[in-house]
Inverse folding.
């Protein structure tokens, strides 16, 4: 009886598997039996709809669980207004799944306008002038050495970006190939999806900038429209969601000693992460 039950179970199992998979029967050729091939039917991938950020959704996203409420102040700059909202962790990670990624090349083949000679980058500008960025060693080779590295190229704006490595801190420089204008930024900026806007953010306990910068590129010029520098928290995971919304995490920390230069990251205790939506409104 047990043997019969086991046989029935095997028969049913084989029948179910045969419904799921298409079996190609073995073929015999020259006394050689081909192994059966099982072709599994692939399920179509589920595509999540992109969330549209509206005023009503922002009201739904706002978090009441805020300890510090030290958001930057809403700001009016030239023809735009910038508003800040504290949102829930759940909504932040829903939005980050569809964040905009700036695919401008980080490394590109040698272009005619950039040449590397020894320890220098020689940059040919559109006005036929040349600019040079050279590695420099000052008094002590280990601690007083500056090294440049090409990082990014935005072809549609004729903008290039470099990182300057200097001992325990880095510097970030964007330069216009049109006129040689340059600007030091907190980090390599991220371009918005379809407008001439850039955001740069950095978090550091001691050596580098700790804040957010907002740039616009107009008439071949790099314009800094907004800059916030913070003392007790820093922005991380900053990204564009669309042309009018930037998101980042505000990481709070507790400094036990006022002398920041003597602090180590082990002594800096993270208190709480809060999630921020930055909304950009063009004023008429």
């Amino acid at each position: 009886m047990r043997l019969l039950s086991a046989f029935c179970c095997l028969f049913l199992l084989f029948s179910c598997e045969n419904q799921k998979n298409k079996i190609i029967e073995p073929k015999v050729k020259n006394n050689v039996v081909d192994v059966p091939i099982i072709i599994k039917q692939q399920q179509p991938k589920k595509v999540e709809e992109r969330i549209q950020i509206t005023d009503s959704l922002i009201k739904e996203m706002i978090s009441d669980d805020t300890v510090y409420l030290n958001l930057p102040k809403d700001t009016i700059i030239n023809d735009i207004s910038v508003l800040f909202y504290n949102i829930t962790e759940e909504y932040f990670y829903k939005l980050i799944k569809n964040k905009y990624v700036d695919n401008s090349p980080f490394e590109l083949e040698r272009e005619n306008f950039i040449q590397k000679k020894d320890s220098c980058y020689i940059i040919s500008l559109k006005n036929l002038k040349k600019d040079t960025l050279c590695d420099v060693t000052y008094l002590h080779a280990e601690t007083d050495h500056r090294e440049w590295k090409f990082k990014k190229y935005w072809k549609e704006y004729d903008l290039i970006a470099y990182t300057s490595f200097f001992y325990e801190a880095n510097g970030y420089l964007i330069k216009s190939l049109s006129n040689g204008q340059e600007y030091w930024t907190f980090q390599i900026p991220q371009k918005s999806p379809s407008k001439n806007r850039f955001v740069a953010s950095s978090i550091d306990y001691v050596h580098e900038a700790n804040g957010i910068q907002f740039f616009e590129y107009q008439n071949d010029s790099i314009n800094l429209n907004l800059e916030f520098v913070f003392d007790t928290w820093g922005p991380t995971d900053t990204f564009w969601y669309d042309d009018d919304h930037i998101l980042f995490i505000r990481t709070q920390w507790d400094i036990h000693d006022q002398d920041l230069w003597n602090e180590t990251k082990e002594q800096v205790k993270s208190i709480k992460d809060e999630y921020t939506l930055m909304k950009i409104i063009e004023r008429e």
Summary: Residues 2-20 form the longest helix (19 residues). The chain has two domains: 2-40, 55-282. The radius of gyration is 28 Å.
